[in-house]
Amino acid sequence: MLARTGIHNRTRVGRNRRALAEAVLGCYPGLSRGICVLLDSEEELRLKKSPWKRTGILGALIPLDHPAGGDINHPVVSRLLEAGKHTVCLWIARRVCRHRCAAEFAWVVAHELRHAQQRQTCPVMLGADRLALRPHLRQLSLPRLEITLPSELDADLTAWRVTRSILGQAVADAYVREQAEDGPAMDCYRALQAMDSDEPYDAPQETLALLRHHRRRLTCLIRESCDLDVFGYRVGDAIRKLEDAGPGALPQTP
Ligand SMILES: [Zn+2]
């Protein structure tokens, strides 16, 4: 049996921040088991097999039921892998946990939790991201992944709704405005502002549209890949699965 979803407070955030993380978790009742939210005392994620660190990221979803989890060099991740009671570790960088702005913290936790929900509800969409779209954005002349990938847009739109529902619309919208005016990802927040509407955003169907549009070129690029996982990927299979899933495969949260 999987462990209850919980918070590992490694950077010792105060009571208010912890309560905020709990409130964000409360927006995802379907994720009540198997997730460890790691509020880390580290600023970066290190990999075992290479000196490269994943720098500059605010949060990450580390799968614990997939070989990729074993590549991460982190004592908590190693312990979780050994115990085998979690499927995912949501890593949150220290600077996010300790950020003066509560909206930034709520946003990042909500964003990563949405990826966990996407993984649980619509794994075929994340497979298309990881193996077909993400590695070939440049060759397909698509802009940076935060603006191109439906899973990322969906995670941000969800984070926006979660932040609004917990901290109020004024606080959440002010945060987006600030980021769109002056932040490291201004273009992403501007894209989000343009999308903000009551129309639900159907990320699996948007992914399907991307795969269909780029099918021929993607198939060629995948055939040329040296990465065995990418090489074994079949765009046609993913298109069929997404067609079968149909609209609304990923419910809106909250
Ligand atoms: Zn993301």
Describe the structure.
The chain is of the alpha/beta class. It folds into two domains: 1-121, no CATH class; 122-254, no CATH class. The chain is built from 13 helices and six strands. The chain has helices at 15-26, 75-83, 94-97, 102-121, 123-133, 145-148, 150-167, 169-181, 186-195, 203-213, 215-223, 228-231, 235-245; strands at residues 6-9, 35-39, 45-46, 53-54, 59-63, 88-92. Strands 1-2-6-5 form a four-stranded mixed β-sheet, with helices on both faces. Strands 3-4 form a two-stranded antiparallel sheet. Helix 7 packs across helix 8 (169-181). It is globular. The site of zinc ion has 4 residues, from helix 4 and helix 7.
Strand content: 5-15%
* Morphology call: globular
Mean pLDDT: 94
- Low-confidence parts, pLDDT < 50 over ≥5 residues? none
In angstroms, what is the radius of gyration? 18 Å
Number of strand elements: 6
Task: Give the CA-CA distance, first to last residue.
Answer: 26 Å
Helical run tally: 13
Q: Tell me the major beta sheet.
A: 4 strands, mixed
Bound molecules: zinc ion
The assigned structural class equals alpha/beta
What are its keywords?
254 residues; alpha/beta; 2 domains; 6 strands
Provide a brief overview of the structure.
The chain has 254 residues and is of the alpha/beta class.
